[in-house]
């Protein structure tokens, strides 16, 4: 029989006997008991009239012996070993505590979120927000849209066309027609009067009536997308000087890639049109260190870089004397307190990989001009810190993360590291082995 079942049955039996003992103790005539004991003829025990004997005293002794026996059994019973950590990735939320492994880097002190950025259209200009909701697919509205070349149905990227950074986005409120009172994504061309507005949160019914669901290609993989009308796309066709289309992510889930794929992470996680992962977090301390290094090169063609060049979603303060310590994150938690709502949100995230960079940061987001060397050359000099997959040929900046649960997030939120690792390998390491 299972030891736990045995113990529970023993305790239940003992408790029932204990109640009977208490009843006998309450009803015992202790004066008569003492009188019986005093007048016992020990030499003639056989002649004692046991019908006059009160058993309360015996029962008290039995209870005492029972307690002693249970204590002995408890000490002789081997301690059962607690089950080890789960291998699957459940949304632990606030239930997952800090864990420092002796062979891992030290856990840094907490820091704070200093900026939140979303990029509604892939490769186009994003904007800062004070607060939003963090979903498992990333920040609300982030990379929900992208442009495709209608000739081959492939996505357009700033990597091949830096002018995409001159396409601005913002959120406005509709003032007329069916859009009145609704939030709109306004898309405009930098330096021109050209602009288009689409529903920021289109319903499935609206999409079915006003767009065409089709297949598009992103990073050599197909996914579905809702394609907007020729009327909306005319502005963009004129800008790109070719036939393009704005598309909105379709209903079929597109799973995260690289270290977030099921083979390495353990579960599948859907997202929208981000390259490989739901969320990128970067450190203000690290961009400061990079700018310091660039300044020391005394290259007059290089101006101080803004964090926007790396297109992260969440920017934390970090420690100026410990830049790049985000490289060692494994599990982190973001805690947001909203007194006005009497609400507290704790969101746990897995930092599953360093972000291997291309030359997009060489593009000035204000002018779309691409520098021939920097910051790529400097990053290649000291930030080739990951030997996994293609990352061995690229520099790294920022961490790619997967949210374990959802909730609101606000600038000023507290970020704490729950666990660290020095075993990150891009597109190679399994998360549960870090």
TrEMBL record:
Protein name: MOSC domain-containing protein
Keywords tagged on the record: Membrane, Transmembrane, Transmembrane helix
Membrane-spanning ranges: 55-77
Residues in the signal sequence: none
One GO MF term: catalytic activity
Record organism: Oleoguttula mirabilis
Annotated SUPFAM superfamilies: MOSC N-terminal domain-like, PK beta-barrel domain-like
Domain MOSC: 250-418
One Pfam family linked to the record: MOSC
UniProt region (Disordered), positions on chain: 87-109
InterPro entries cross-referenced by the UniProt entry: MoCF_Sase_C (IPR005302), MOCOS_middle (IPR005303), Pyrv_Knase-like_insert_dom_sf (IPR011037)
Keyword hit for Transmembrane helix: yes
């Amino acid at each position: 029989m299972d030891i736990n079942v045995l113990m529970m049955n023993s305790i239940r039996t003992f408790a029932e006997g204990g109640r009977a003992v208490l009843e006998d103790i309450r009803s015992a005539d202790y004066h008569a008991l003492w009188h019986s004991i005093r007048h016992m003829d020990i030499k003639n025990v056989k002649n004692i009239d046991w019908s006059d004997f009160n058993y309360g005293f015996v029962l008290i002794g039995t209870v005492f012996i029972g307690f002693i026996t249970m204590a002995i059994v408890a000490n002789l019973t081997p301690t059962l070993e607690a089950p080890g950590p789960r291998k699957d990735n459940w949304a632990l939320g606030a239930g997952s505590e800090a864990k420092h492994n002796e062979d891992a880097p030290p856990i840094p002190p907490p820091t704070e979120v200093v900026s939140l950025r979303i990029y509604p259209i892939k490769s186009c200009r994003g904007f800062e927000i004070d607060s939003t909701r963090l979903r498992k697919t990333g920040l609300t509205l982030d990379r929900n849209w992208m442009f495709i070349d209608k000739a081959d149905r492939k996505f357009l990227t700033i990597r091949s066309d830096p002018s995409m950074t001159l396409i601005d986005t913002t959120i406005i409120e509709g003032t007329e027609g069916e859009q009145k009172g609704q939030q709109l994504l306004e898309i405009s061309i930098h330096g021109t009067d050209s602009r288009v507005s689409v529903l920021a949160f289109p319903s499935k019914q609206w999409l079915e009536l006003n767009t065409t669901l089709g297949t598009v290609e992103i990073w050599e993989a197909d996914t579905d997308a809702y394609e907007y009308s020729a009327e909306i796309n005319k502005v963009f066709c004129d800008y790109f000087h070719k036939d393009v289309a704005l598309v909105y992510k379709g209903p079929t889930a597109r799973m995260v890639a690289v270290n977030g794929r099921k083979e390495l992470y353990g579960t599948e996680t859907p997202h929208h049109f981000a390259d490989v992962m739901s969320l990128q977090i970067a450190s203000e301390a690290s961009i400061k260190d990079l700018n310091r290094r660039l300044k020391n090169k005394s290259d007059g063609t290089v101006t101080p870089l803004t964090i926007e060049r790396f297109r992260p979603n969440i920017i934390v303060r970090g420690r100026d004397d410990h830049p790049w310590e985000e490289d060692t994150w494994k599990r982190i938690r973001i805690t947001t307190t909203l007194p006005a709502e009497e609400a507290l949100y704790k969101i746990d995230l897995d930092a599953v990989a360093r972000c291997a960079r291309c030359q997009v940061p060489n593009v000035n987001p204000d002018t779309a001009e691409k520098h021939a060397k920097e910051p790529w050359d400097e990053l290649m000099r000291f930030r080739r810190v990951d030997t996994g997959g293609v990352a061995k040929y690229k520099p790294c900046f920022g961490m790619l993360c997967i949210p374990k649960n959802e909730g609101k997030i606000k600038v000023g939120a507290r970020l704490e590291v729950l666990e660290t690792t020095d075993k990150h390998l891009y597109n190679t390491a399994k998360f549960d082995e870090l």
